[in-house]
Amino acid sequence: MPVPSNEPIIAIRGLSHTYGVGTTGSIHALDGVDLDIFPGEYLAILGHNGSGKSTLARHLNVLLRPTAGEVWVKGLDTRVPENTWTIRRSVGMVFQVPDNQIVASIVEEDVAFGPENLGVPEEELHQRVEWALGAVGLLDLRQREPHRLSAGQKQRVALAGVMAMKPDILVLDEATSMLDPEARREVLAVVHSLNREGLTVVAITHLMDEATDAGRVIVLQAGKIGLEGTPRQVLTRVEEMRKLQLDVPQATELAYLLHQRDPSFPRDLLTVHEVVDAVRQRAPARAFQQGQAAE
Amino acid sequence: MSAQPFIQVSDLHFSYLRGTPLEAAALRGASMVVHRGEAVGIIGRAGSGKSTLVQHFNGLLRPCGAGQVVVAGQDLSDPQADLRSIRQQVGLVFQVPEQQLFERLVGDDIAFGPKKLGLERPERRERVRWAMDMVGLDFEAFKDRFTVSLSGGEMRKVALAGVLALRPEVLILDESTSGLDPRSRREMLARFSALHRDQGLTLVFVSPSMEEIAGLVDRIYVMEQGRVALHGPTRQVFAQAERLRQCGLDVPQVTAIAHELAALRLAADSVPLNVTEGVEVLWAALGH
Protein backbone atom coordinates (compact mmCIF):
# COMPACT_ATOMS: atom_id res chain seq x y z
CA MET A 1 0.00 0.00 0.00
CA PRO A 2 1.42 3.42 -0.90
CA VAL A 3 2.37 5.51 2.10
CA PRO A 4 -0.13 8.39 2.38
CA SER A 5 1.62 11.71 1.79
CA ASN A 6 1.23 14.66 4.13
CA GLU A 7 -0.52 16.86 1.58
CA PRO A 8 -4.29 16.16 1.68
CA ILE A 9 -6.00 15.42 -1.65
CA ILE A 10 -9.25 16.64 -0.10
CA ALA A 11 -9.30 19.32 2.63
CA ILE A 12 -12.57 20.05 4.43
CA ARG A 13 -12.65 23.11 6.72
CA GLY A 14 -15.56 23.98 9.00
CA LEU A 15 -18.04 22.42 6.58
CA SER A 16 -21.70 22.99 7.43
CA HIS A 17 -24.70 22.11 5.34
CA THR A 18 -28.25 23.21 5.97
CA TYR A 19 -31.12 21.99 3.79
CA GLY A 20 -33.93 24.52 3.31
CA VAL A 21 -32.02 27.56 4.60
CA GLY A 22 -34.41 30.23 5.90
CA THR A 23 -37.46 27.97 6.01
CA THR A 24 -39.12 26.65 9.16
CA GLY A 25 -38.21 23.12 8.13
CA SER A 26 -34.48 23.72 7.75
CA ILE A 27 -32.27 20.76 8.68
CA HIS A 28 -28.63 21.09 9.74
CA ALA A 29 -27.09 17.99 8.15
CA LEU A 30 -23.43 18.92 8.71
CA ASP A 31 -22.16 21.13 11.48
CA GLY A 32 -18.56 22.32 11.26
CA VAL A 33 -16.73 19.25 9.91
CA ASP A 34 -12.91 19.44 9.64
CA LEU A 35 -11.38 16.54 7.75
CA ASP A 36 -8.29 15.87 5.65
CA ILE A 37 -8.28 12.96 3.20
CA PHE A 38 -4.85 11.85 2.00
CA PRO A 39 -3.80 10.43 -1.39
CA GLY A 40 -3.95 6.64 -1.49
CA GLU A 41 -5.82 6.20 1.78
CA TYR A 42 -8.93 4.07 2.34
CA LEU A 43 -11.27 6.06 4.55
CA ALA A 44 -14.56 4.61 5.82
CA ILE A 45 -17.23 7.03 7.01
CA LEU A 46 -19.76 5.41 9.35
CA GLY A 47 -22.95 6.81 10.80
CA HIS A 48 -26.64 5.95 11.16
CA ASN A 49 -29.33 7.28 8.78
CA GLY A 50 -29.50 11.04 9.15
CA SER A 51 -25.98 11.42 10.62
CA GLY A 52 -24.91 13.48 7.59
CA LYS A 53 -22.70 10.90 5.88
CA SER A 54 -24.39 11.03 2.48
CA THR A 55 -24.47 14.83 2.62
CA LEU A 56 -20.72 14.81 3.26
CA ALA A 57 -20.18 12.47 0.27
CA ARG A 58 -22.15 14.81 -1.99
CA HIS A 59 -19.81 17.66 -1.14
CA LEU A 60 -16.81 15.71 -2.43
CA ASN A 61 -17.84 16.00 -6.09
CA VAL A 62 -19.87 19.21 -5.90
CA LEU A 63 -23.33 17.66 -5.96
CA LEU A 64 -23.72 20.07 -3.02
CA ARG A 65 -21.90 23.27 -2.09
CA PRO A 66 -21.17 24.35 1.50
CA THR A 67 -23.66 26.62 3.24
CA ALA A 68 -20.68 27.48 5.48
CA GLY A 69 -17.03 26.42 5.47
CA GLU A 70 -15.10 25.09 2.50
CA VAL A 71 -14.11 21.93 0.62
CA TRP A 72 -10.91 21.79 -1.43
CA VAL A 73 -10.32 18.93 -3.88
CA LYS A 74 -6.79 18.73 -5.33
CA GLY A 75 -6.32 22.38 -4.49
CA LEU A 76 -9.61 23.47 -6.09
CA ASP A 77 -12.37 25.22 -4.10
CA THR A 78 -15.79 23.58 -4.67
CA ARG A 79 -17.48 26.97 -4.14
CA VAL A 80 -16.03 28.25 -7.42
CA PRO A 81 -18.44 27.22 -10.23
CA GLU A 82 -15.62 27.08 -12.82
CA ASN A 83 -14.00 24.25 -10.81
CA THR A 84 -17.06 21.97 -10.87
CA TRP A 85 -16.22 19.85 -13.91
CA THR A 86 -12.53 19.50 -13.12
CA ILE A 87 -13.42 18.29 -9.63
CA ARG A 88 -16.09 15.87 -10.88
CA ARG A 89 -13.50 14.39 -13.22
CA SER A 90 -11.21 13.69 -10.23
CA VAL A 91 -13.92 12.31 -7.94
CA GLY A 92 -15.94 9.29 -9.10
CA MET A 93 -19.05 8.23 -7.19
CA VAL A 94 -20.83 4.88 -7.00
CA PHE A 95 -24.27 4.86 -5.37
CA GLN A 96 -26.45 2.32 -3.60
CA VAL A 97 -28.67 1.30 -6.54
CA PRO A 98 -26.55 0.64 -9.67
CA ASP A 99 -29.60 0.59 -11.97
CA ASN A 100 -29.88 4.38 -11.59
CA GLN A 101 -26.30 4.77 -12.76
CA ILE A 102 -26.33 2.50 -15.80
CA VAL A 103 -27.27 4.26 -19.06
CA ALA A 104 -26.43 2.01 -22.03
CA SER A 105 -27.87 -1.33 -23.13
CA ILE A 106 -24.52 -3.09 -23.60
CA VAL A 107 -21.95 -3.37 -20.80
CA GLU A 108 -18.95 -2.01 -22.72
CA GLU A 109 -20.99 0.88 -24.15
CA ASP A 110 -22.03 1.82 -20.65
CA VAL A 111 -18.43 1.83 -19.47
CA ALA A 112 -17.41 3.96 -22.50
CA PHE A 113 -20.20 6.50 -21.93
CA GLY A 114 -18.38 8.71 -19.41
CA PRO A 115 -14.96 9.00 -21.10
CA GLU A 116 -16.64 9.38 -24.50
CA ASN A 117 -18.48 12.43 -23.16
CA LEU A 118 -15.18 13.81 -21.93
CA GLY A 119 -14.00 13.70 -25.54
CA VAL A 120 -11.38 11.01 -24.96
CA PRO A 121 -9.91 10.03 -28.39
CA GLU A 122 -10.99 6.70 -29.90
CA GLU A 123 -7.72 4.85 -29.31
CA GLU A 124 -7.45 5.84 -25.64
CA LEU A 125 -11.18 5.28 -25.11
CA HIS A 126 -10.73 1.69 -26.19
CA GLN A 127 -7.78 1.21 -23.83
CA ARG A 128 -9.64 2.75 -20.89
CA VAL A 129 -12.71 0.55 -21.39
CA GLU A 130 -10.47 -2.50 -21.70
CA TRP A 131 -8.60 -1.57 -18.54
CA ALA A 132 -11.72 -0.73 -16.51
CA LEU A 133 -13.52 -3.95 -17.50
CA GLY A 134 -10.38 -5.92 -16.62
CA ALA A 135 -10.03 -4.16 -13.28
CA VAL A 136 -13.55 -5.16 -12.20
CA GLY A 137 -13.30 -8.62 -13.77
CA LEU A 138 -16.04 -8.17 -16.39
CA LEU A 139 -14.17 -8.70 -19.67
CA ASP A 140 -16.20 -11.86 -20.30
CA LEU A 141 -19.50 -10.05 -19.92
CA ARG A 142 -18.68 -6.98 -22.05
CA GLN A 143 -21.32 -7.75 -24.68
CA ARG A 144 -24.09 -8.50 -22.20
CA GLU A 145 -27.08 -6.34 -21.33
CA PRO A 146 -26.49 -4.73 -17.94
CA HIS A 147 -30.09 -5.19 -16.71
CA ARG A 148 -29.78 -8.96 -17.09
CA LEU A 149 -26.73 -9.19 -14.82
CA SER A 150 -26.73 -10.02 -11.10
CA ALA A 151 -26.72 -7.20 -8.55
CA GLY A 152 -22.99 -7.63 -7.84
CA GLN A 153 -22.17 -7.65 -11.55
CA LYS A 154 -24.30 -4.52 -12.14
CA GLN A 155 -22.51 -2.73 -9.32
CA ARG A 156 -19.19 -3.70 -10.94
CA VAL A 157 -20.43 -2.26 -14.27
CA ALA A 158 -21.20 1.01 -12.47
CA LEU A 159 -17.77 0.89 -10.86
CA ALA A 160 -16.07 0.24 -14.23
CA GLY A 161 -17.96 3.21 -15.72
CA VAL A 162 -16.57 5.43 -12.97
CA MET A 163 -13.04 3.99 -13.21
CA ALA A 164 -12.96 4.56 -16.98
CA MET A 165 -13.05 8.29 -16.15
CA LYS A 166 -9.67 7.73 -14.39
CA PRO A 167 -10.63 9.47 -11.16
CA ASP A 168 -8.09 10.11 -8.39
CA ILE A 169 -10.70 9.58 -5.71
CA LEU A 170 -13.47 6.98 -5.57
CA VAL A 171 -16.46 7.67 -3.33
CA LEU A 172 -18.70 4.69 -2.50
CA ASP A 173 -22.02 5.91 -1.12
CA GLU A 174 -23.38 2.73 0.51
CA ALA A 175 -22.43 1.02 -2.73
CA THR A 176 -22.52 -2.50 -1.26
CA SER A 177 -25.42 -2.24 1.18
CA MET A 178 -27.90 -3.84 -1.24
CA LEU A 179 -25.58 -6.70 -2.19
CA ASP A 180 -25.49 -10.22 -0.78
CA PRO A 181 -22.32 -11.30 1.06
CA GLU A 182 -20.73 -12.94 -1.97
CA ALA A 183 -21.40 -9.99 -4.30
CA ARG A 184 -20.19 -7.60 -1.60
CA ARG A 185 -16.90 -9.48 -1.27
CA GLU A 186 -16.60 -9.44 -5.07
CA VAL A 187 -17.02 -5.63 -5.30
CA LEU A 188 -14.85 -4.85 -2.26
CA ALA A 189 -12.02 -7.05 -3.55
CA VAL A 190 -11.94 -4.93 -6.71
CA VAL A 191 -12.00 -1.68 -4.74
CA HIS A 192 -9.17 -2.81 -2.44
CA SER A 193 -6.98 -3.83 -5.36
CA LEU A 194 -7.54 -0.41 -7.00
CA ASN A 195 -6.67 1.20 -3.67
CA ARG A 196 -3.41 -0.78 -3.51
CA GLU A 197 -2.56 0.68 -6.91
CA GLY A 198 -2.90 4.19 -5.48
CA LEU A 199 -6.60 5.11 -5.81
CA THR A 200 -7.94 7.15 -2.87
CA VAL A 201 -11.14 5.52 -1.57
CA VAL A 202 -13.84 7.10 0.61
CA ALA A 203 -16.47 4.52 1.59
CA ILE A 204 -19.71 5.72 3.17
CA THR A 205 -21.22 2.71 4.91
CA HIS A 206 -23.00 1.29 7.90
CA LEU A 207 -21.62 -2.19 7.32
CA MET A 208 -18.90 -3.28 9.70
CA ASP A 209 -17.22 -5.73 7.33
CA GLU A 210 -16.54 -2.75 5.04
CA ALA A 211 -15.10 -0.67 7.87
CA THR A 212 -12.81 -3.38 9.31
CA ASP A 213 -10.69 -3.39 6.16
CA ALA A 214 -10.36 0.40 5.84
CA GLY A 215 -7.17 2.27 6.71
CA ARG A 216 -9.00 4.86 8.78
CA VAL A 217 -12.55 5.17 10.10
CA ILE A 218 -14.54 8.23 11.12
CA VAL A 219 -17.99 8.08 12.69
CA LEU A 220 -20.42 10.92 12.02
CA GLN A 221 -23.00 11.82 14.62
CA ALA A 222 -25.48 14.68 14.18
CA GLY A 223 -23.33 16.27 11.48
CA LYS A 224 -20.09 16.19 13.50
CA ILE A 225 -17.17 13.77 13.66
CA GLY A 226 -17.88 11.64 16.75
CA LEU A 227 -15.01 9.11 16.62
CA GLU A 228 -11.90 8.78 14.50
CA GLY A 229 -8.99 6.31 14.24
CA THR A 230 -7.96 2.97 12.81
CA PRO A 231 -10.74 0.37 12.49
CA ARG A 232 -9.34 -1.33 15.59
CA GLN A 233 -9.31 1.88 17.63
CA VAL A 234 -12.85 2.85 16.59
CA LEU A 235 -14.81 -0.38 16.20
CA THR A 236 -13.65 -1.88 19.47
CA ARG A 237 -15.12 1.03 21.46
CA VAL A 238 -18.26 -1.05 21.89
CA GLU A 239 -20.09 1.20 24.34
CA GLU A 240 -19.48 4.40 22.38
CA MET A 241 -20.43 2.73 19.09
CA ARG A 242 -23.70 1.60 20.66
CA LYS A 243 -24.37 5.12 21.88
CA LEU A 244 -23.88 6.25 18.29
CA GLN A 245 -26.50 3.64 17.29
CA LEU A 246 -24.05 1.52 15.33
CA ASP A 247 -23.28 -2.18 15.46
CA VAL A 248 -19.86 -3.67 15.99
CA PRO A 249 -18.72 -6.98 14.42
CA GLN A 250 -19.95 -10.02 16.40
CA ALA A 251 -16.31 -11.05 16.88
CA THR A 252 -15.59 -7.70 18.56
CA GLU A 253 -18.67 -7.95 20.76
CA LEU A 254 -17.67 -11.48 21.86
CA ALA A 255 -14.17 -10.27 22.80
CA TYR A 256 -15.68 -7.34 24.69
CA LEU A 257 -18.00 -9.63 26.71
CA LEU A 258 -15.19 -12.11 27.48
CA HIS A 259 -12.96 -9.23 28.56
CA GLN A 260 -15.66 -8.12 31.02
CA ARG A 261 -15.62 -11.59 32.60
CA ASP A 262 -11.86 -11.99 32.45
CA PRO A 263 -9.83 -8.77 32.00
CA SER A 264 -6.84 -10.76 30.71
CA PHE A 265 -8.80 -11.57 27.53
CA PRO A 266 -8.01 -8.91 24.86
CA ARG A 267 -10.91 -6.60 24.08
CA ASP A 268 -9.57 -5.09 20.85
CA LEU A 269 -10.29 -7.95 18.41
CA LEU A 270 -11.97 -7.45 15.04
CA THR A 271 -12.16 -10.73 13.17
CA VAL A 272 -13.23 -14.36 13.54
CA HIS A 273 -9.62 -15.40 13.09
CA GLU A 274 -8.35 -13.11 15.88
CA VAL A 275 -10.94 -14.42 18.36
CA VAL A 276 -10.17 -18.05 17.51
CA ASP A 277 -6.44 -17.33 17.96
CA ALA A 278 -6.93 -15.56 21.29
CA VAL A 279 -8.98 -18.49 22.62
CA ARG A 280 -6.45 -20.99 21.31
CA GLN A 281 -3.59 -19.23 23.12
CA ARG A 282 -5.48 -19.25 26.41
CA ALA A 283 -7.40 -22.52 26.29
CA PRO A 284 -6.29 -25.21 28.74
CA ALA A 285 -4.76 -28.30 27.13
CA ARG A 286 -7.73 -30.62 27.00
CA ALA A 287 -8.95 -32.06 23.75
CA PHE A 288 -12.62 -32.25 22.97
CA GLN A 289 -13.63 -35.24 20.89
CA GLN A 290 -15.42 -34.22 17.75
CA GLY A 291 -19.10 -35.00 18.06
CA GLN A 292 -19.06 -34.53 21.83
CA ALA A 293 -22.14 -32.64 22.96
CA ALA A 294 -21.94 -29.43 25.00
CA GLU A 295 -22.21 -29.99 28.74
CA MET B 1 -50.07 -24.73 13.37
CA SER B 2 -52.69 -26.50 11.28
CA ALA B 3 -52.00 -29.61 9.22
CA GLN B 4 -52.75 -27.83 5.92
CA PRO B 5 -49.87 -25.44 5.13
CA PHE B 6 -50.87 -21.84 4.41
CA ILE B 7 -48.48 -21.76 1.46
CA GLN B 8 -47.49 -24.92 -0.39
CA VAL B 9 -45.14 -24.87 -3.36
CA SER B 10 -44.53 -28.16 -5.16
CA ASP B 11 -41.89 -28.76 -7.82
CA LEU B 12 -42.26 -25.23 -9.20
CA HIS B 13 -40.54 -24.23 -12.42
CA PHE B 14 -40.43 -20.70 -13.78
CA SER B 15 -38.64 -19.00 -16.66
CA TYR B 16 -38.48 -15.36 -17.57
CA LEU B 17 -39.03 -14.47 -21.26
CA ARG B 18 -40.36 -17.93 -21.94
CA GLY B 19 -40.32 -19.03 -25.56
CA THR B 20 -37.76 -16.39 -26.59
CA PRO B 21 -34.04 -16.85 -27.27
CA LEU B 22 -33.43 -14.95 -24.01
CA GLU B 23 -35.37 -17.46 -21.89
CA ALA B 24 -33.79 -17.70 -18.45
CA ALA B 25 -34.81 -20.35 -15.96
CA ALA B 26 -35.22 -18.89 -12.46
CA LEU B 27 -36.89 -21.81 -10.70
CA ARG B 28 -36.13 -25.45 -11.50
CA GLY B 29 -38.29 -27.55 -9.26
CA ALA B 30 -38.57 -25.62 -5.97
CA SER B 31 -40.69 -27.06 -3.19
CA MET B 32 -41.47 -25.57 0.22
CA VAL B 33 -44.23 -25.03 2.76
CA VAL B 34 -45.09 -22.21 5.12
CA HIS B 35 -47.48 -22.95 7.98
CA ARG B 36 -49.72 -20.38 9.62
CA GLY B 37 -47.92 -18.59 12.45
CA GLU B 38 -44.40 -19.61 11.42
CA ALA B 39 -41.35 -17.45 10.83
CA VAL B 40 -39.46 -18.86 7.84
CA GLY B 41 -36.21 -17.60 6.31
CA ILE B 42 -35.17 -17.93 2.68
CA ILE B 43 -31.49 -17.40 1.88
CA GLY B 44 -29.36 -17.87 -1.21
CA ARG B 45 -26.92 -15.98 -3.40
CA ALA B 46 -28.12 -13.37 -5.89
CA GLY B 47 -29.84 -15.08 -8.80
CA SER B 48 -30.68 -18.26 -6.86
CA GLY B 49 -34.42 -17.73 -7.32
CA LYS B 50 -35.46 -16.31 -3.91
CA SER B 51 -37.34 -13.29 -5.24
CA THR B 52 -38.98 -15.23 -8.06
CA LEU B 53 -40.16 -17.79 -5.51
CA VAL B 54 -41.70 -15.32 -3.05
CA GLN B 55 -43.41 -13.40 -5.87
CA HIS B 56 -45.46 -16.57 -6.41
CA PHE B 57 -46.75 -16.39 -2.83
CA ASN B 58 -49.23 -13.60 -3.54
CA GLY B 59 -49.92 -14.35 -7.19
CA LEU B 60 -47.68 -11.62 -8.57
CA LEU B 61 -46.18 -14.41 -10.65
CA ARG B 62 -48.39 -17.38 -11.60
CA PRO B 63 -47.27 -20.96 -12.16
CA CYS B 64 -47.07 -21.39 -15.93
CA GLY B 65 -46.44 -25.02 -16.63
CA ALA B 66 -44.67 -27.35 -14.24
CA GLY B 67 -45.39 -27.16 -10.55
CA GLN B 68 -48.12 -25.99 -8.21
CA VAL B 69 -48.60 -23.13 -5.76
CA VAL B 70 -51.45 -23.38 -3.24
CA VAL B 71 -52.08 -20.39 -0.98
CA ALA B 72 -54.86 -20.36 1.62
CA GLY B 73 -56.43 -23.37 -0.07
CA GLN B 74 -56.47 -21.81 -3.54
CA ASP B 75 -54.52 -23.23 -6.46
CA LEU B 76 -52.88 -20.23 -8.11
CA SER B 77 -52.52 -21.94 -11.49
CA ASP B 78 -56.33 -21.90 -11.66
CA PRO B 79 -57.36 -18.81 -13.69
CA GLN B 80 -60.43 -18.54 -11.42
CA ALA B 81 -58.30 -18.08 -8.26
CA ASP B 82 -59.41 -15.10 -6.18
CA LEU B 83 -56.18 -13.06 -6.27
CA ARG B 84 -57.81 -10.12 -4.50
CA SER B 85 -58.34 -12.17 -1.37
CA ILE B 86 -54.85 -13.72 -1.64
CA ARG B 87 -53.21 -10.29 -1.86
CA GLN B 88 -55.17 -9.09 1.13
CA GLN B 89 -53.85 -12.03 3.14
CA VAL B 90 -50.29 -12.06 1.83
CA GLY B 91 -48.37 -8.77 1.94
CA LEU B 92 -45.16 -8.50 -0.05
CA VAL B 93 -42.53 -5.80 0.44
CA PHE B 94 -39.81 -5.52 -2.17
CA GLN B 95 -36.10 -4.94 -2.03
CA VAL B 96 -36.36 -1.34 -3.20
CA PRO B 97 -39.65 -0.47 -1.55
CA GLU B 98 -39.48 3.22 -2.47
CA GLN B 99 -40.52 2.05 -5.92
CA GLN B 100 -43.81 1.04 -4.30
CA LEU B 101 -44.71 4.65 -3.36
CA PHE B 102 -47.01 6.61 -5.65
CA GLU B 103 -49.19 9.03 -3.65
CA ARG B 104 -48.17 12.63 -2.95
CA LEU B 105 -48.54 12.53 0.83
CA VAL B 106 -47.25 9.89 3.22
CA GLY B 107 -50.64 9.40 4.94
CA ASP B 108 -52.47 8.93 1.62
CA ASP B 109 -49.89 6.45 0.41
CA ILE B 110 -50.29 4.25 3.48
CA ALA B 111 -54.11 4.63 3.40
CA PHE B 112 -54.32 3.54 -0.26
CA GLY B 113 -54.67 -0.19 0.49
CA PRO B 114 -57.22 0.17 3.31
CA LYS B 115 -59.24 2.52 1.06
CA LYS B 116 -59.29 -0.13 -1.66
CA LEU B 117 -60.52 -2.60 0.96
CA GLY B 118 -63.52 -0.27 1.39
CA LEU B 119 -62.75 0.72 4.98
CA GLU B 120 -64.39 3.87 6.38
CA ARG B 121 -62.30 6.95 7.10
CA PRO B 122 -61.97 6.59 10.90
CA GLU B 123 -60.83 2.98 10.60
CA ARG B 124 -58.46 3.85 7.77
CA ARG B 125 -56.92 6.54 9.95
CA GLU B 126 -56.50 4.05 12.79
CA ARG B 127 -54.83 1.54 10.45
CA VAL B 128 -52.46 4.21 9.14
CA ARG B 129 -51.59 5.35 12.66
CA TRP B 130 -50.94 1.76 13.76
CA ALA B 131 -48.87 0.89 10.69
CA MET B 132 -46.73 4.01 11.04
CA ASP B 133 -46.13 3.20 14.68
CA MET B 134 -45.04 -0.33 13.69
CA VAL B 135 -42.33 0.94 11.36
CA GLY B 136 -41.23 3.72 13.71
CA LEU B 137 -42.66 6.77 11.90
CA ASP B 138 -44.34 9.42 14.04
CA PHE B 139 -47.94 9.79 12.80
CA GLU B 140 -48.33 13.54 13.34
CA ALA B 141 -44.84 14.41 12.10
CA PHE B 142 -44.97 12.37 8.91
CA LYS B 143 -48.58 11.95 7.71
CA ASP B 144 -48.61 15.23 5.74
CA ARG B 145 -45.04 15.04 4.44
CA PHE B 146 -44.48 14.75 0.68
CA THR B 147 -43.32 11.23 -0.21
CA VAL B 148 -40.71 12.66 -2.59
CA SER B 149 -39.08 14.66 0.22
CA LEU B 150 -38.32 11.59 2.35
CA SER B 151 -34.88 10.05 2.86
CA GLY B 152 -34.25 6.56 1.46
CA GLY B 153 -34.75 4.98 4.88
CA GLU B 154 -37.99 6.87 5.48
CA MET B 155 -39.36 5.86 2.06
CA ARG B 156 -38.65 2.26 2.94
CA LYS B 157 -40.59 2.63 6.17
CA VAL B 158 -43.57 4.20 4.36
CA ALA B 159 -43.67 1.33 1.85
CA LEU B 160 -43.61 -1.20 4.70
CA ALA B 161 -46.36 0.68 6.55
CA GLY B 162 -48.48 0.63 3.37
CA VAL B 163 -48.34 -3.17 3.30
CA LEU B 164 -48.86 -3.54 7.06
CA ALA B 165 -51.96 -1.32 6.88
CA LEU B 166 -53.67 -4.12 4.93
CA ARG B 167 -53.27 -6.24 8.09
CA PRO B 168 -52.00 -9.26 6.13
CA GLU B 169 -51.81 -12.69 7.73
CA VAL B 170 -48.49 -13.34 6.04
CA LEU B 171 -45.83 -10.68 5.66
CA ILE B 172 -43.09 -11.34 3.10
CA LEU B 173 -40.02 -9.15 3.41
CA ASP B 174 -37.82 -9.51 0.34
CA GLU B 175 -34.58 -7.89 1.53
CA SER B 176 -36.73 -4.92 2.47
CA THR B 177 -34.50 -3.89 5.36
CA SER B 178 -31.19 -3.79 3.49
CA GLY B 179 -29.98 -0.25 3.26
CA LEU B 180 -31.57 0.75 6.57
CA ASP B 181 -29.11 1.63 9.31
CA PRO B 182 -28.57 -0.92 12.10
CA ARG B 183 -30.79 0.85 14.62
CA SER B 184 -33.79 1.30 12.30
CA ARG B 185 -33.41 -2.29 11.14
CA ARG B 186 -33.20 -3.67 14.67
CA GLU B 187 -36.20 -1.67 15.86
CA MET B 188 -38.32 -2.65 12.90
CA LEU B 189 -37.42 -6.33 13.13
CA ALA B 190 -38.18 -6.30 16.86
CA ARG B 191 -41.68 -4.98 16.08
CA PHE B 192 -42.27 -7.64 13.42
CA SER B 193 -41.03 -10.33 15.81
CA ALA B 194 -43.49 -9.06 18.41
CA LEU B 195 -46.35 -9.19 15.89
CA HIS B 196 -45.30 -12.72 15.02
CA ARG B 197 -45.08 -13.80 18.67
CA ASP B 198 -48.12 -11.99 20.07
CA GLN B 199 -50.57 -11.90 17.18
CA GLY B 200 -49.50 -14.89 15.14
CA LEU B 201 -48.34 -12.94 12.08
CA THR B 202 -46.68 -15.36 9.66
CA LEU B 203 -43.29 -14.05 8.51
CA VAL B 204 -41.35 -15.00 5.39
CA PHE B 205 -38.03 -13.33 5.56
CA VAL B 206 -35.55 -13.05 2.69
CA SER B 207 -32.33 -11.47 3.91
CA PRO B 208 -28.69 -11.33 2.89
CA SER B 209 -27.64 -10.92 6.52
CA MET B 210 -27.00 -14.26 8.21
CA GLU B 211 -26.68 -12.55 11.61
CA GLU B 212 -30.11 -11.03 11.17
CA ILE B 213 -31.88 -14.14 9.92
CA ALA B 214 -30.34 -16.33 12.65
CA GLY B 215 -32.09 -14.34 15.32
CA LEU B 216 -35.48 -14.17 13.67
CA VAL B 217 -36.69 -17.38 12.08
CA ASP B 218 -37.56 -20.94 13.17
CA ARG B 219 -36.77 -22.62 9.87
CA ILE B 220 -34.60 -21.83 6.86
CA TYR B 221 -34.72 -22.75 3.18
CA VAL B 222 -31.46 -22.36 1.25
CA MET B 223 -31.92 -21.72 -2.46
CA GLU B 224 -29.34 -22.69 -5.08
CA GLN B 225 -29.90 -22.52 -8.84
CA GLY B 226 -33.68 -22.39 -8.62
CA ARG B 227 -34.06 -25.28 -6.20
CA VAL B 228 -34.05 -25.78 -2.44
CA ALA B 229 -30.54 -27.02 -1.68
CA LEU B 230 -30.96 -27.36 2.07
CA HIS B 231 -33.68 -26.79 4.62
CA GLY B 232 -34.39 -27.38 8.27
CA PRO B 233 -34.51 -25.73 11.68
CA THR B 234 -32.27 -22.65 11.81
CA ARG B 235 -29.61 -24.23 14.03
CA GLN B 236 -29.42 -27.35 11.92
CA VAL B 237 -28.90 -25.31 8.73
CA PHE B 238 -26.19 -23.10 10.24
CA ALA B 239 -24.39 -26.23 11.48
CA GLN B 240 -23.55 -26.93 7.82
CA ALA B 241 -21.07 -24.10 7.30
CA GLU B 242 -19.23 -25.78 4.40
CA ARG B 243 -22.42 -26.51 2.49
CA LEU B 244 -23.58 -22.90 2.99
CA ARG B 245 -20.27 -21.57 1.66
CA GLN B 246 -20.72 -23.72 -1.45
CA CYS B 247 -24.04 -21.92 -1.92
CA GLY B 248 -22.24 -18.56 -1.77
CA LEU B 249 -23.42 -17.88 1.78
CA ASP B 250 -21.83 -17.62 5.15
CA VAL B 251 -22.69 -18.36 8.77
CA PRO B 252 -22.90 -15.69 11.50
CA GLN B 253 -19.48 -14.80 12.94
CA VAL B 254 -20.30 -16.40 16.32
CA THR B 255 -21.23 -19.63 14.56
CA ALA B 256 -18.00 -19.54 12.53
CA ILE B 257 -15.91 -19.03 15.69
CA ALA B 258 -17.56 -21.96 17.49
CA HIS B 259 -17.14 -24.10 14.38
CA GLU B 260 -13.40 -23.36 14.12
CA LEU B 261 -12.80 -23.97 17.83
CA ALA B 262 -14.58 -27.32 17.57
CA ALA B 263 -12.42 -28.23 14.55
CA LEU B 264 -9.34 -27.43 16.68
CA ARG B 265 -10.82 -29.67 19.41
CA LEU B 266 -10.90 -26.67 21.75
CA ALA B 267 -14.67 -26.66 22.17
CA ALA B 268 -17.50 -29.13 22.04
CA ASP B 269 -19.57 -29.11 18.84
CA SER B 270 -22.21 -26.42 19.09
CA VAL B 271 -24.05 -23.96 16.86
CA PRO B 272 -24.48 -20.67 18.72
CA LEU B 273 -26.77 -18.32 16.79
CA ASN B 274 -26.17 -15.09 18.69
CA VAL B 275 -23.54 -13.40 20.83
CA THR B 276 -25.21 -14.39 24.11
CA GLU B 277 -24.97 -18.08 23.18
CA GLY B 278 -21.52 -17.64 21.67
CA VAL B 279 -19.96 -16.12 24.75
CA GLU B 280 -20.87 -19.22 26.79
CA VAL B 281 -19.23 -21.53 24.21
CA LEU B 282 -16.02 -19.47 24.36
CA TRP B 283 -16.11 -19.21 28.14
CA ALA B 284 -16.27 -23.02 28.36
CA ALA B 285 -13.43 -23.35 25.84
CA LEU B 286 -11.32 -21.09 28.05
CA GLY B 287 -11.68 -23.66 30.81
CA HIS B 288 -14.38 -22.06 32.97
Salient structural properties:
heterodimer, A: 295 residues, alpha/beta, Rossmann fold, 6-stranded mixed sheet, 37% helix, B: 288 residues, 4-stranded antiparallel sheet, globular
Distance between the termini of chain A: 47 Å
Rg of chain A to the nearest angstrom? 21 Å
- Would you tell me which CATH topology of chain A applies? Rossmann fold
According to CATH, the homologous superfamily of chain A is P-loop containing nucleotide triphosphate hydrolases
Average pLDDT of chain B, rounded to a whole number, is 89
Number of domains of chain B: 1
Helix and strand succession of chain A? EEEHEEHEHHHEHEHEEHHHH
Enumerate the spans of chain B where pLDDT stays under 50 for 5 or more consecutive residues.
Answer: none
The largest sheet of chain A, given as strand count, sense and whether it forms a barrel, is: 6 strands, mixed
H/E series of chain B = EEEHEEHEHHHHEHEHEEHHHH
Give the amount of beta strand of chain A, in percent: 15-25%
The number of distinct helices of chain A, counting runs of at least 4 residues, comes to 11
- What CATH architecture of chain A do you see? 3-Layer(aba) Sandwich
Number of domains of chain A: 1
Shape of chain B: globular
| Main beta sheet strand tally, sense and closure of chain B | 6 strands, mixed
* Spans where pLDDT lies below 50 across 5 or more residues of chain A: none
